[in-house]
Structures are given as structure tokens and as C-alpha cells.
Amino acid sequence: MRFVSVAGLAASLFMLSACGERVEVPPAHVGKVLTESGYKPEVVPPSKFRLDMCMFYCDKLVTMTIADFGHLEKFKVFMPKDQLNMSFDVRMTGAISREAIDSVFDRIPPDNDNISVNRVYGTYAQPVIRDVVRRVVAKYSINEIASSRESLSHELFNEVSKALKGTPIEIKRLGLADIQFPKVITQAKERAAERRELIEQEKAQFQIQKIQMERDLEREKMNRAIAREKAIGQKEVNDLLAKSVTDKYLAYRTLEVLDKMAESNNKVFLPVEALGTIGMQHAVLNDQVKQVAGK
Predict the structure, then answer these.
(1) Which residues are within 8 A (CB) of 104 and not within 5 positions of it... i.e. 6 or more apart?
(2) What are the coiled-coil residue ranges (predicted)?
(3) Predicted TM-score of the model (pTM)
(4) Domain tally for the chain?
(5) Does 219 lie in the same domain as 132?
(6) Which of 12-21, 87-96, 279-288 is most confident?
(7) Domain that holds residue 218
């Protein structure tokens, strides 16, 4: 009985050791089974499964990330046209090309049974990207970069994508970021901005003064028009008086004045000769003016 029990226990232990390990390919990854003679040809999608049973050498699963990754490269480039150094970042989004999965497994050794995207990027893409970016940016002046940042980012994306053809890395987005211009350039731009602001202020002040002067000119025109109308009116009154006040009319009006004076309690007796004096004629004329003006 003891012999059977020991034999059964040994058989159980043998079966347990022969049972394959339970493994998993997580989401956004692929895997390959590494055997004693190399990788199996099949690429395993995200899944859970058991490896084959083994005795002396056990297979193992090697995974690789295929999700999109974000990366930032920092640059400090000497600008030949300006003879100055300029710092900037290049931000990008990339991924491992699915067509290159087999070649990556064959050429990049795993670390803890995983091939990281950073390892693939550092091997195939980083040297190319740093070389292309430096070459393209150095063609331009700092002012050209400042005024054409979007078009330069587009050019960098095209040039980097072209240079990475045939590598496992494909770039989906790429652009300039956090450009740090040399201090002398920044100060010059600030002074130029201050000058532009002063010019705009002067233009605004000029427009205000222009409006005020135009308003004053219109006021003067109105005043002259009013004065001209008053003069025309006065002339018309004078012309009317000149036509209507005759010697006969003055004599008639003189008699009317005398009649009124006779009816008044404040009687004043004048010599007959005084009736033709300038003072008497002036009184009659003033009365006529009041009547004309009242009309």
C-alpha cells in the first residue's frame, strides 16, 4: 500500500510539472511563444491560454506593446543664419507598425519577457528623428521659425515619416513645442512690440484729435451759416423799410404820433418846426421798425 501511495504521489507530481503554465497577452499587446528552438511563427493576440506541457525545457510567452505611444524629444540647435543657439521640443505620437512585428521579435531581445516600445523607439527611431529635425530646423532663421511654426511642423512630420519608412516605427503626429528663443531675440521682439503699441496709441490719439477738429469745423460752419442767415434777414428788413418809409409816410405817421400824444395825459407841446427834426423822425422810424419786426 505504501508503495502504491508513493507511486501515485510521484505520478501526480509528474502530471503537475508537465502541465503548461497559464499565461496572458494583455490588451494593446501581442505575443509570441519562445521555444527551445526559437519563436513560434504565430503572433498571439490579446488572450489567456496555457503553454504546452514540458519536462526539461519549458516554453515562455514574450509580449510586446503595440499601443500608440507619446514621446518628447528636447533639442538645442545652433542656428547658422543667426549664429545663435535655440532650444525647443518636438512632441510626437507613434506606434509599432504591425507589418514589422515579426522582425521586432527577431531582432530585439526581451527584458523580463517583454519588448517595450521605448526599446524599439530608441533602437530604430530616435537617432533618425534627431538627425532629421536638426537638419531641417537649421535651414531657417529664428524669425522664419517664429512666423512659420505650423508649416515647419508639417515639414518635419513629412521628413521624419519619410526617413522612418522601412523601420518598425511609424509616426502619426509630430510638431514643434515650447520654443525658447535666444534672449537677444526675445528682447528685440519685446522692443518691437512696444514700438508697435506706441504707434497704435499715436494713431488712436490722432484719430481722436481728427474727430474733435472735424466736430469744431462743423460747429464753425453752422455758426457762420446762422450768422449769414441773420445778416440776410436783417438786410431784408432794411430793404423793406427803405422801400416803405417815404416822406409822405413819415408825415402820416407823425400825425398819428401827435394824435396819440394828444390823447395821453403826458402831453408835450413842441414847436411846429420840431416836427421835422431828426429826433422826431427817429421816433417815428423806431415805431415802424417794431411793427415790421412784429409781422
Answers:
(1) 64, 96, 115, 120, 168
(2) 185-230
(3) 0.58
(4) 4
(5) no
(6) 87-96
(7) 183-241
